């Protein structure tokens, strides 16, 4: 006699079927409309941690969390560099990999290269907002005389259904103590196969900072393109992640050598056949520089973007990663870590607010568009704790900056002079301590004030001057 399910037994089955039908599509099916950048900032006390920035066009970036770290390593060396964001094929899980290294501790580069950590730091998330505690994974410990494990990256391999994780390790072999790229496989970023040698340049030439991107429709003739630091920023193409790679050229023809730039980031712009290659201008300390192309395999097609075509936000951005994200993810990230916006109201002309107009700075009433009078008070570009900079909401990466005692809205050019002139100490109002005044960092005897409704930087000696230099934030 055949078994027949009872009506009660069918209820869970029917409920499960209805739940399946009503569940919205996985996030991987949603279109990507924005971008998330993860990076570190340098060797300062908190610079070797994880910072986030978002963008709607892939060129103009806004720092999250007031340019402060969003993730802090509590394991290993308690510092991280070179972060990489990895998304699962289904879009339901993310991993963030980073170098376990803290130069700010005073250990020095020689120790870091030859007696450093052989582990990677790994975080895990399902939504890019809530992250697991960091964990250490010793990927390079089995490499003979391994001195480090730097700049980890990972790419999903559809042929094997797992991820190829690759990084640079400095170790002696064949008479040369240098950096080579090694790889391991994993399905869960917890258990890894034994490290295997991946890329070894001839002779004494080392290689670091490799990043691979899959190219839809094999634009340029290759399914995969990778960029590496090997004395130059070299670009290669292949049709298999672990197959044979063809050298396509380097960036020296654009005047960018390995002595000037490192840490390449490859990404595709959302919704179009255009790619970005960002390089970290480490030798000059200017942070990232974007190049764009419609054919990542053709080095002659790369174009360096001018300083007027991109902004990097408030914080200096060192070796990082760019991940395309959906509008919902963009909204969630900004809701979690956005800096509050404010208006800067004149104390003695209460109907007027600090605004920019054609990049000039003044106080006006009835500001239109309203965003011209909206600002983010962010940590100072110079001066450390206790200092602030005033960033435009609708022109991210542009700040109130004085020059010859006049104020304008100007794009951060990453120079020390700009940082100093765009930094202030926020102090109790000179005319009313319940308000605020902004004391110049580079000229501390002078304050931001309005005069004939234009912003100036002046020494304040009169009651009128004190009133003109006092504001309220609302």
TrEMBL record:
Domain Alpha-L-arabinofuranosidase B arabinose-binding, first and last residues per copy: 343-472
Pfam families, per the entry: AbfB
Record's signal peptide: 1-28
A GO molecular-function descriptor: hydrolase activity
Database matches in SUPFAM superfamilies: AbfB domain (SSF110221), Arabinanase/levansucrase/invertase (SSF75005)
CDD domains per UniProt: beta-trefoil_ABD_ABFB, GH43_Bt3655-like
Keywords: Hydrolase, Signal
Protein name, UniProt field: Glycoside hydrolase family 43 protein
Organism expressing this protein natively: Actinoplanes sichuanensis
